[in-house]
Amino acid sequence: MQIDFEIFSPIHQIHDKLFDERGIKLFIKRDDLIHPIISGNKWRKLKYLLRDARAQNKTHLVTFGGAYSNHLLATAAAAAKFGFKSTGIVRGEEVNNDTLFLCRLHGMNLIFTDRESYRDKAALFQKYFEHDANAYFIDEGGGSALGAEGVSELINELRETYDHIFCACGTGTTAAGIINGIIEHQLSTVFHGIPVLKNGEFLRKDIDAILASPAEYDLLTDYHFGGYGKVTDELISFVKNFTASTGILIEPIYTGKMLYAIYDLAAKNHFKAGDKILAIHTGGIWGLLGMKDKFTG
Prior knowledge:
- By secondary structure, this protein is α/β, with parallel strands linked by helices.
- The chain has 2 domains: 11-37 and 145-296, Rossmann fold (3-Layer(aba) Sandwich), CATH 3.40.50.1100; 41-142, Rossmann fold (3-Layer(aba) Sandwich), CATH 3.40.50.1100.
- The chain has helices at 17-22, 41-55, 70-82, 98-105, 115-118, 121-129, 145-156, 173-184, 203-209, 233-246, 255-267, 292-296; strands spanning 11-14, 25-30, 60-65, 85-91, 109-113, 135-137, 164-169, 190-195, 218-219, 276-281.
- The radius of gyration is 19 Å and the shape is globular.
């Protein structure tokens, strides 16, 4: 079975008085619409990894994530779709939740491990799958040069140029892929990454390691709201208001933080009149399943 399917990722303009008053235009690339589960950067990062696994005649995808990992769920769904067996090594104590239910429903076997052991993923892969010749290692979040290659194709799909492109950053693979696409097309677009982890400047090293060539870009590290998976009432309110006013569902772990940053920068007159901004919706809306209490409290 061929590892491919048609990408559906339209670009919609976001209308808001804030942008009108400052003479700027905000657009959002709807990578969340690529697939109901293998959406956003998840599909883009998995595409060439799955092709590599198929080329090596590997039939068993092994990957890693937390108990509410969108990546685990996307890998489980991709494995089911393209005829692979899958295993997810889950950080932390054994639990049952909506995300892991969906992983299992797609046929994924789950192995839970303590947080200390989880830090050495290569050792865990060896421990459980050293004698499984069919096993194929996929790092947490799909982080890899092959993952970045898939993401870089996003730039091929743009029909006009933008002054700024914004994207949330977790592992840095998506950021590197977009920057590589900008380099390939020789665009003057400025890339802005929004690390969702505390002290996110460390991602620069990971991004630089998989860039096609050295490049200038921004990492805006003040929009993590306390760290990975952390939120505040202000951020939750923003996500609620954005979804209700646009009809575009977002979550507060990645895309919510990225869009909050754009609105905040616009309010602080960071952009010039006439600027066109493209925000990348990286999917991951299933992450809302782990935060339902934040929205009802």
